[in-house]
């Protein structure tokens, strides 16, 4: 698969909270929850992988953290600017199969990993409104995307490291996997490892969306490999969503 960036229009680019931005682009492609786009800064050769937060009316919304030169360039974009993107990419959460066997679902997000869990929860509810979703979001200090996830959750719990909002501590302090049929998770690797270990102890199914540095997004460069019981896998092509039991942290 070749890397064919194409231009589209920026419809919105705003700071949600300190260092966290929401980017909305014009895009008609169908997107599965957990998929991502490679977004190319004008001053760079390589794109940045950013997960899809929401899709609506031929638009795609991303949520990204200001952490480097590329995202700093994104932060300076304004409505009406053009931007080069490539996507959607990767294998996301298989909503149809998830709701077929699971009615009580925990949606767990940490930091910027909360973004793809918005669309995940939304698509689950749209597919089967009778499924019960309890969302657990964890942050260092500032919170964001709360109202969005509450819209698609039957119950919502929040934790912050500083205690500025919700439970003071880790989001894993609030999660009891044995109460659910399946746990869906995205966030810092150390958090996901903890969630997977908790699920193993209770025998609960768990799917995780891995976040890795990427250069191509199509599985050619092997920059984003992760270890699994079946050998090294490409996060961009084989994932980013994996069975948590299969990943070797």
Automatic annotation (TrEMBL):
Pfam family, one: DHODB_Fe-S_bind
GO BP annotations, alphabetical order: 'de novo' UMP biosynthetic process
Transmembrane segments: none
CDD domains: DHOD_e_trans (cd06218)
Quaternary structure (record): Heterotetramer of 2 PyrK and 2 PyrD type B subunits.
GO MF annotation: an example: 2 iron, 2 sulfur cluster binding
Entries under InterPro entries matching the protein: Cyt_c3_hydrogenase_gsu, Dihydroorotate_DH_ele_sf, Dihydroorotate_DH_Fe-S-bd, Dihydroorotate_DHASE_ETsu, FAD-bd_FR_type, FNR_nucleotide-bd, OxRdtase_FAD/NAD-bd, PyrK_electron_transfer
Protein name per the record: Dihydroorotate dehydrogenase B (NAD(+)), electron transfer subunit
Comment on bound cofactor: Binds 1 [2Fe-2S] cluster per subunit.
Family: Belongs to the PyrK family.
Record keywords: 2Fe-2S, Electron transport, FAD, Flavoprotein, Iron, Iron-sulfur, Metal-binding, Pyrimidine biosynthesis, Transport
Cofactor: [2Fe-2S] cluster; FAD
Positions with a binding annotation for FAD: 48-51, 70-71
Domain of life: Bacteria
Pathway: Pyrimidine metabolism; UMP biosynthesis via de novo pathway; orotate from (S)-dihydroorotate (NAD(+) route): step 1/1
NCBIfam families, per database record: PRK00054.1-3
Ligand binding ([2Fe-2S] cluster): 216, 221, 224, 236
PANTHER family: DIHYDROOROTATE DEHYDROGENASE B (NAD(+)), ELECTRON TRANSFER SUBUNIT (PTHR43513), DIHYDROOROTATE DEHYDROGENASE B (NAD(+)), ELECTRON TRANSFER SUBUNIT-RELATED (PTHR43513:SF3)
Annotated function: Responsible for channeling the electrons from the oxidation of dihydroorotate from the FMN redox center in the PyrD type B subunit to the ultimate electron acceptor NAD(+).
Record domain FAD-binding FR-type: where: 3-95
Organism: Inconstantimicrobium porci
């Amino acid at each position: 698969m070749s890397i064919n960036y194409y231009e589209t229009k920026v419809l919105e680019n705003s700071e949600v909270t300190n260092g966290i931005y929401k980017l909305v682009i014009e895009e008609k492609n169908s997107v599965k929850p957990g998929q991502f786009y490679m977004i190319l800064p004008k001053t760079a050769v390589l794109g940045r992988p950013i997960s899809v937060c929401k899709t609506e009316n031929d638009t795609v919304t991303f949520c990204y953290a200001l952490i480097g030169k590329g995202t700093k360039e994104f932060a300076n974009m304004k409505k009406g600017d053009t931007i080069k993107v490539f996507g959607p990419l990767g294998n996301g959460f298989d909503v149809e199969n998830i709701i077929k066997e699971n009615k009580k679902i925990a949606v767990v997000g940490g930091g910027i990993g909360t973004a793809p869990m918005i669309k995940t929860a939304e698509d689950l509810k749209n597919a089967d409104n009778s499924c019960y979703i309890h969302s657990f979001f964890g942050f260092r200090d500032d919170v964001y995307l709360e109202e969005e996830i509450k819209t698609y959750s039957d119950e919502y719990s929040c934790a912050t490291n500083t205690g500025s909002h919700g439970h003071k501590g880790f989001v894993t302090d609030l999660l009891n996997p044995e109460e659910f049929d399946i746990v869906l998770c995205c966030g810092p690797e150390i958090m996901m490892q903890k969630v997977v270990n908790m699920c193993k102890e209770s025998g609960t199914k768990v799917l995780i969306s891995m976040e890795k540095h990427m250069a191509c997004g199509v599985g050619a460069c092997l920059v984003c490999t992760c270890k699994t019981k079946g050998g090294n896998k490409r996060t961009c092509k084989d994932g980013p969503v994996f069975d948590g039991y299969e990943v070797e942290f």
